[in-house]
Amino acid sequence: MSSQLTLALAGTIRHDGDGGVTDDLADTPGLARWLSEQAEPLRRHDDDLAPPTDLPDEQTRLDVVALRRAVRTLLARAVAPAPPSRADHSSLLTPADAVRHLNDAAGALPTSPRLHWPDDAAPTLTRHPPPAPLRTRLTAALARAAADFLAGPDRQRLRACPAPRCVRYFLQDHARQQWCKPSCGNRARVARHYQRHQAER
Fold first, then answer.
1. What is the average pLDDT across 178-188?
2. CA distance 77 to 147
């Protein structure tokens, strides 16, 4: 599930349907919508992390956007030597800076172990973060999800969609999958067909 949350964060930079790129996190209402859509995956990384009832503040938005830049840098590194997403060619950090940013965000919310041992059951150990502001909890959860994904086996299936105008990263489900979704495959085929006809003329 770390891959789902990480790709959802990266996917907040997307094709706008008109040949350009849009940023779903361009303002605080956009961040609030995205947090609401990602409520369940976020809760899997922090039980107490619920979407805010009020709009997140601008600093929270800036922190999430900065973390997204680090994540997209590391996704671009993961797909190399293939090219990164078209949206990333001029906005990537150095890989070392991206790793540092991710680790700093993940480590900003330490957890402490708690032993539970009821009379009628075996002991269990859970880890709980201390109370912290939404901004810290959110970026820590997103950074930890990205670190889990990047260090896990799913990273090998990561691809940048090569379809015209697409800027998404996706997980390849089978060896022949080239695009993030069928509509991107259709767009790529139409573009190739158009280029062939232009060349024949």
1. 79
2. 13
